[in-house]
UniProtKB/TrEMBL annotation:
Pfam families: Rgg_C. The lineage of its organism: Bacteria, Bacillati, Bacillota, Bacilli, Lactobacillales. InterPro entries: Transcription_activator_Rgg_C. This is HTH-type transcriptional regulator Rgg C-terminal domain-containing protein. It comes from Ligilactobacillus murinus. It comes from the Bacteria.
Length: 188
């Protein structure tokens, strides 16, 4: 009977959370309805008071699958946990990427008020020279804010074009396309 214990499935939070993330993402890709109250990852993230890199990574994974109403309970928690990190160097890159994902999310959902709020949070970052990707996003978003604030086109058009050109030069065609689509969405 001792060997039997090796066969019995054990509860493993990591795998439960992976399955929860996959369930949300697949349901969203298939445009199928899903019940978040049954999702172990969503429940865990809502209940976790303090977030570490583990929670931030899972949140970033499911962010595109969430509706604005499903995202709402996380916003104060995210800001509180990001504030704990401050300008701690190892977390600068990760928190900057998370804020950028949230900004893209709000722009995609045409919530420019919340996008502007997170743009303001992003402007407080002091990024080191080695964070090239993050600096490119930072430059893109600081100039995109000018567009959102209806500043004259000569203040934002050229810097945004340079960001797109830089992404293409660095062989980041998906990012360049994301930049272009974001600008088109706002200008149309």
């Amino acid at each position: 009977m001792r060997g039997w214990s090796f066969v019995i499935a054990k509860h493993n939070d990591f795998y439960t959370h992976i399955l929860g993330a996959l369930d949300l993402v697949i349901s969203q890709l298939k445009s199928q309805p899903y019940n978040l109250s049954d999702n172990a990852l969503y429940t865990y993230l809502i209940q976790a008071f303090s977030w570490t890199d583990y929670e931030f990574k899972f949140f970033q994974l499911i962010l595109p699958a969430l509706s604005p109403a499903e995202l709402e309970p996380f916003l104060a928690k995210i800001e509180r946990n990001l504030a704990k990190f401050g300008n701690a160097t190892p977390y600068n890159q990760k928190s900057c990427n998370l804020i950028c994902d949230i900004i893209f999310y709000f722009i995609q959902h045409q919530n420019y008020v919340n996008a502007s709020h997170y743009l303001t949070l992003l402007e407080n970052y002091d990024l080191t020279e080695n964070l090239v990707y993050e600096k490119l996003l930072f430059t893109f978003f600081t100039n995109l804010k000018k567009l959102l604030l209806h500043q004259p086109a000569n203040t934002w058009r050229r810097p945004l074009s340079k960001c797109i050109a830089t992404a293409k030069f660095l062989d980041m065609p998906n990012l360049a396309e994301k930049f272009e689509q974001t600008i088109l969405q706002i200008t149309n």
